[in-house]
């Protein structure tokens, strides 16, 4: 219904930025202004086939790794996500706990995070929303592992609660095996000064400076061992890393430059016809 409305109003716009990816790609054929689509999900074989059928769309990847995973797609730019840093206060003095924060599901590494906390003897706080399709996974696979002392579950977090959990944590665990295209919680944590320990998968080497803002590891044992060296990470270095590479200003400037480039190209072609 929204796309039907957009089609009727399209003459009012110089450019259309679509964040709905595979849901709305086919509708792009009915639009005259240039279309930009940001790819937020991992690229699968199926979505790659779909996006290749619509080379009229100007796709934006959110990491270099994501772009490499979709050969043949009309990916015109790689633009990292950016944060409004003023909303992520830096904290140099953390409390003694690890944090896992995401939506709860088997692909997000929550069971692995619990294993790592137990291997290292560290306290772990878990926060996340439980989608209906993963209710049984949480109830029967994860909940029995949460005893309320070493492993604690604090429910889902709104923005204020999330930032408070980030800034007080001594490290964020990110044991995800899927080819994560970005990982917003990674830069959110670092913005608050929190080092991140992640598997060397997907975009993680682009976000984390190994040994400087966290550690990139290969398995649970390496992640547990890396926790012994977490005090070596300067929390201010984590914050400065985000301030240098992942601000909302940098993201907006790159999108605006892309918009201008595409609009000029569109107007030039329109004059020819």
Question: Can you walk through the features of this model?
Answer:
The protein contains eleven helices and ten strands. The protein has 273 residues and is α/β, with parallel strands linked by helices. It has two domains: 2-82 and 248-272, Glycogen Phosphorylase B (Rossmann fold), CATH 3.40.50; 85-245, Glycogen Phosphorylase B (Rossmann fold), CATH 3.40.50. The strands form two sheets. Strands 7-6-5-8-9-10 form a six-stranded parallel β-sheet, sandwiched between helices. It has a four-stranded parallel β-sheet with strand order 1-2-3-4. α7 crosses α10 (235-245). It is elongated and about 70 Å long. The relative contact order is 0.14.
Share of helix, binned: 25-40%
Task: Provide the domain count.
Answer: 2
Say how many strands there are.
10
Which secondary-structure class do the elements indicate?
alpha/beta
Count of helical stretches: 11
The order of strands across the largest sheet is 7-6-5-8-9-10
Largest sheet: 6 strands, parallel
| Rg for CA atoms | 21 Å
Low-confidence stretches: none
Q: What is the name of the CATH superfamily of the largest domain?
A: Glycogen Phosphorylase B
How do the SSEs run, as a string of H and E?
HEEHEHEEHEHEHEHEHEHHH
- At the fold tier of CATH, the topology name of the largest domain is Rossmann fold
Beta-strand percentage range:
5-15%
Roughly what is the average pLDDT, rounded to an integer?
96
Terminal residue distance? 31 Å
Structure at a glance:
This protein is an alpha/beta fold.
């Amino acid at each position: 219904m929204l796309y039907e409305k957009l089609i009727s109003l399209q003459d009012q716009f110089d450019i259309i930025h679509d964040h709905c990816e595979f849901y709305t790609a086919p509708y792009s054929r009915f639009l005259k202004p240039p279309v930009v689509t940001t790819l937020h999900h991992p690229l699968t074989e199926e979505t790659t086939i779909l996006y290749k059928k619509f080379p009229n769309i100007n796709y934006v990847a959110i990491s270099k790794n994501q772009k490499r995973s979709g050969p043949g797609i009309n990916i015109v730019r790689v633009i990292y996500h950016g944060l409004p840093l003023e909303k992520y206060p830096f904290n140099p003095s953390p409390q003694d706990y690890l944090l896992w924060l995401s939506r709860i599901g088997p692909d997000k590494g929550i069971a692995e995070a619990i294993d790592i906390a137990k291997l290292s003897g560290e306290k772990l706080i878990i926060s996340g929303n439980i989608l209906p399709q993963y209710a049984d996974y949480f109830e029967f696979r994860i909940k029995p592992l949460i005893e309320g002392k070493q492993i604690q579950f604090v429910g889902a977090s709104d923005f204020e609660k999330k930032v408070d959990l980030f800034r007080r944590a001594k490290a964020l665990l990110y044991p995800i095996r899927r080819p994560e295209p970005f990982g917003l919680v990674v830069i959110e944590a670092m913005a608050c000064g929190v080092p991140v320990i992640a598997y060397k998968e997907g975009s993680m080497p682009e976000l984390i400076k190994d040994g400087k803002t966290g550690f990139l590891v290969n398995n649970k044992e390496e992640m547990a061992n890396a926790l012994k060296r977490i005090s070596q990470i300067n929390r201010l270095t984590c914050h400065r890393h985000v301030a240098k590479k992942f601000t909302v200003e940098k993201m907006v400037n790159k999108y605006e430059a892309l918009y201008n480039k595409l609009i000029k190209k569109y107007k030039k072609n329109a004059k020819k016809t």
